[in-house]
Amino acid sequence: MALVAILHLVEALLIFVNGYHNATPMFFKHCSGKVVGGFALRKFWPMPAVALVGVVMVTSGADFQSVPMPEWWPIFQSTLDVPESHMLVHVLFPLVVALGYGDFVQTELPKTKARRSAGLLFLYSLVLLGLAVLANQHPIRSIFPVVFAPLGHELVIYLGQRREKVKTPVFHGEDGVMVLAVYPNSPAEQMGLEAGDVIRSINGIEIADLAALANQMSPWVIDPTLVVESQFRQPSRREIEYKGKIPPLGIVPAPHPGQGAYVRFKDGFLKSLWNKWKARRK
Fold it and tell me: What is the pLDDT of residue 279?
């Protein structure tokens, strides 16, 4: 359990630093019935690790030299009653550990979501590590880390998913054209457009929807001036002067009200059975 806690501590650090990079923009069917924009966060980190394993070995007829574990070491203090002609040896055992992170976000920026998840996972890891240390000192308490490990992890997942269901989605194109993502090396990236920016006008002409944006850029517009608003940065309203020709603009727009293609999350196996049982009772 201590090893599980330490691995989750490392995972929390990786999520905090790198978990939001290269988030994939997607269209989701929200529980309210609307199609909204969001991001899928997917990360995978293979890493080497070393486990410290205790082995009881026969010493009769052999010359063994070992270094005793320090008294202050909190986890690997052995309470084994080692018989004579035997000794407890700690061996370094190489492992290949794979840490993975998968999540989605519709109510805030990927960076905010990843760091919120990292904070919850960090707290879970500290609690689990503390329970593991206490259980090592008092074996009667071993049940606590064993029970908390899966239940606490499910709680972390539940809290993240619940926030996405309770909070209002922010990535939608009902008022203006909202930027969901920006293509690398595009005019949009050179302008500094970011996820959550709403294009309000081009050269003084109001942009009400995606069709108006396309009409204003058709066949092209040279050296345009854009007025953009954002709820994620200050000042919220800014004017951008771009030197060059568009299209291409290089954005992935948030879905408009008539969007037909989207991703829908399926219920898990147990929840699906539960819903079928409730439907039959009705």
Answer: 78
* pLDDT single digits (tens) 61-83: 556 566 666 666 655 555 566 67
Q: How many domains does the chain have?
A: 2
Q: Which residue reads 């969901």 in tokens?
A: 180
Q: Which domain holds residue 27?
A: 2-166
Instruction: For residue 55, list its beta bridge partners.
Output: 89
Question: 18 lies in a domain?
Answer: yes
pTM for this predicted structure: 0.76
Phi, psi of 28 (to 5 degrees): -120, 150
Using CA atoms, how far apart are residues 260 and 184, in angstroms rounded to an integer?
26
Question: Are 90 and 52 contacting, i.e. CB atoms less than 8 angstroms apart?
Answer: yes
**CA atoms within 13 A of residue 49's CA, in its CB half-sphere:** 16
Q: pLDDT for 246-268, tens place per residue?
A: 888 888 888 887 777 777 766 66
Q: Which residues contact 192 (CB under 8 A, 6 or more apart)?
A: 240
The residue from 147, 166, 185 where one domain ends is 166
DSSP secondary-structure letter at 69? P
Q: Is residue 80 part of a domain?
A: yes
What is the C-alpha separation between 15 and 42, in angstroms, rounded?
A: 10
Going by pLDDT thresholds of 50, 70 and 90, the confidence category of residue 152 is very high
Contact 221, 228 (CB under 8 A): no
